[in-house]
Specification:
Layout lengths: L12 H12 L8 H14 L3 E5 L2 H11 L7 E5 L5 H8 L3 E5 L1 E2 L4 E2 L1 H7 L4 E7 L9 H11 L2 E5 L7 E2 L2 E2 L6 E5 L12 E5 L2 H10 L23 H31 L6 E3 L12 E5 L2 H10 L5 E2 L18 H9 E4 L7 H16 L1
Parallel strand pairs: 2-3, 2-6, 6-7, 7-10
Antiparallel strand pairs: 1-11, 4-5, 8-9, 10-11, 12-13, 13-15, 14-15
């Protein structure tokens, strides 16, 4: 068996031909018509009224916060278990990231603990749909934040192609944010996108990402802004990737169901409940005992894996709280991502699951 990477991007001749045609046609490389086409494709797929693509997913979250008026000294509530980009996006603009524990059943922010963390300084909540999953109480998040006049931003970096209640993930909050980094279901190498149905927020987003200008090519600055723009080169790749997205979504769901069935009733392995009718998992995840031993064993069998994110309050960069976040710590200790590339075959998934079973059964 060849080595099975935990994740790898997927390109073919479609991207290469499209890039060659773009360059032969005299494309200017910087963002222009192809970028607008890519934004329109994302808006259409998600059902959002507006979309703006930017340089990466972290920047996307910072722009979303700035568009919502978050500034120095404000507090932004984030889950303790998430990719570090989530709190970094708040800290980048001088706000304070306030950590909240997760619900171990879905790895998403705990609603009741979120409410306890709200103070008069709270300006926004960043809800992470980890691995495409929503918390079961998503509507309560929406209603609570609206009643408290707190912005709800969805970090849906891992969730393109996932839905909840017939609505695309990222469309319950005021702004939804996606990532197109290499491991995502579609990739442009780097890149991010913001979607919203609020035209006022969209106008602010467009200005912040482009120096605060009234429009491209103008040197009239209506607000402070920065150069967070995309490129047409990335958009050309993104448009080809978007054509493949529906098939990839269905494949991810099928892969997830296969993993779910194959990993049933293995002592030492806990599956994380996922609705594969709506969720296209970014990575396939388990909670397991003796994680390091399992990882070493699987590597010997040419199977790549990856540990979950750490509980962020334990990291030196954010070690400023004495609070306890037991569920985030548990996930960080036991969580393991299994091979998840969209090119993975059923036979390879069988191989992975069989060796997990053999490890725990001896």
């Amino acid at each position: 068996m060849k080595f099975i990477n935990q994740m790898e991007p997927c390109f073919d001749d479609c991207e290469r031909i499209a890039l060659n045609e773009y360059m032969q046609a005299g494309g200017w490389v910087t963002e222009f018509k192809k970028t607008r086409e890519f934004e329109a494709a994302i808006a259409k797929y998600t059902g959002a009224s507006f979309c703006s693509v930017v340089s990466n997913g972290t920047v996307a979250l910072s722009i979303a916060l700035m568009a919502c008026g978050v500034t120095v000294g404000d507090e932004v509530i984030v889950p303790d278990y998430t990719m570090v980009a989530t709190p970094n996006a708040a800290e980048l603009i001088g706000a304070k990231a306030v950590f909240v524990d997760i619900d171990i059943r879905n790895l998403c922010m705990d609603f009741e603990l979120m409410k306890e963390a709200v103070t008069e300084k709270t300006k926004a909540v960043i809800l992470v749909s980890i691995n495409g999953r929503y918390p079961s109480r998503i509507k309560e998040f929406v209603d609570y934040c609206k009643a408290k006049e707190i912005y709800l931003i969805e970090d849906a970096a891992q969730s393109l192609g996932s839905f909840y209640g017939g609505r695309h993930v990222g469309r319950y909050g005021d702004i939804g944010s996606f990532s197109f980094s290499a491991p995502k279901i579609i990739t442009t190498g780097q890149g991010g996108a913001l979607i919203t149905d609020n035209e006022e927020l969209f106008t602010k987003i467009k200005r912040i990402r482009d120096f605060g200008r009234e429009q491209g090519g103008s040197d009239h600055y209506l607000t402070k802004g920065w150069n967070f723009k995309f490129t047409d080169i990335q958009a050309v790749i993104g448009l080809e990737q978007m054509k493949k997205l529906p098939d990839r979504v269905e494949r991810k769901k099928a892969m997830g169901k296969l993993y779910w069935d194959k990993l049933a009733e293995i002592p030492g392995v806990e599956r994380i409940d996922t609705d594969f009718a709506q969720t296209a998992p970014w990575f396939f995840d388990i909670l397991c005992e003796d994680r390091q031993g399992l990882m070493a064993y699987l590597k010997e069998k040419n199977i790549g894996t990856r540990e979950f994110y750490p509980a962020l309050h334990k990291e030196p960069a954010y070690h400023y709280t004495s609070l306890s976040f037991p569920s985030a710590e548990d996930a960080a200790k036991r969580g393991l991502w299994l091979p998840s590339a969209v090119t993975l075959t059923d036979e390879e998934i069988d191989y992975v699951c069989e060796h997990i079973r053999m490890y725990y059964h001896g």
